[in-house]
Amino acid sequence: MDQKEDIFRKAEKLLAEKQLSIESSDRSRPWGGFYVVKEEQASRFIRTFFPSLKVADFQKFSKLSPKLLMVAPERRLSWQYHHRRSEIWRVIHGTVGVIVSDTDEQGPVRVLVEGDSISLNEGERHRLVGLDNWAVLAEIWQHTKPGEPSDEEDIVRLEDDFGR
Question: pTM above the 0.85 mark?
């Protein structure tokens, strides 16, 4: 079994153990892939993967989208931002790099280890960077425009290693 298949299998097993249901998945991303957890389980997802946060902290958002991201070694997600969402990430396995900026200029890579989390504001530029091994992150999209939820079309790519 290859490493990608193994990390996805472990992530799927973890979600099942935590009684979180997968709504959809994508294993074909050039940087790895993800599992989307059912939105109605957002509170359980927060309690499970973001123990330092309170579910009440998210009540101002009309919609939340919980996901697990699997980031491949030495792969970078696009340098991007969003108009209709903020995000919170927490590393639950491995280490990953992150670049964050208020401008289009990329700064240095900051290394996040298991247990570290980061909050990204709407419009804030960001990029995940795979390091030496696979990493798994819990992610919550916090939709900031009621009635107009964020989706994959809400990605403004400033730079992309894969020509998207």
Answer: yes
